[in-house]
């Protein structure tokens, strides 16, 4: 679950998950109507990822995500 900054709530956003090598491993667009959103990362390998969230208006936020092994 991602907590979104106030400026990105109630907007259509693009969420990209980027590996430590810089490869985009997951990308999805969705409309957000709350302060939290879920992102299915079960298919990703264990490691450290950067989550980039960008709105259509150009606002951007980044977060670091650590995925542990299943």
Please characterize this protein's 3D structure.
The protein has strands at 2-3, 12-18, 24-31, 36-37, 47-55, 60-67. By secondary structure, the protein is mainly beta. The strands form two sheets. The protein has a four-stranded antiparallel β-sheet, with no helix packed on it.
Order of helices and strands: EEEEEE
Average pLDDT level:
87
Helix content class: under 10%
Multimeric state: single chain
Q: Termini distance? A: 17 Å
**What is the count of helical runs?**
0
The percentage of residues in β strands lies in over 45%
What are its keywords?
mainly beta; 70 residues; four-stranded antiparallel sheet; two-stranded antiparallel ribbon; 6 strands; 51% strand
Summarize the structure.
With 70 residues, the chain is mainly β. 0% of the residues lie in helices and 51% in strands.
Q: How are the SSEs placed, and which strands pair?
A:
Blueprint: E1 2-3, E2 12-18, E3 24-31, E4 36-37, E5 47-55, E6 60-67
Antiparallel strand pairs: 1-4, 2-3, 2-5, 5-6
């Amino acid at each position: 679950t991602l907590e979104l900054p106030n400026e990105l709530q109630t907007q259509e956003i693009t969420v990209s998950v980027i590996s430590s090598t810089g490869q985009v491993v997951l990308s999805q667009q969705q409309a957000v109507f709350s302060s939290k959103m879920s992102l299915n990362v079960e298919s990703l390998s264990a490691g450290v990822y950067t989550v980039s969230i960008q709105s259509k208006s150009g606002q951007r936020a980044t977060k670091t995500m650590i995925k542990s092994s299943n």
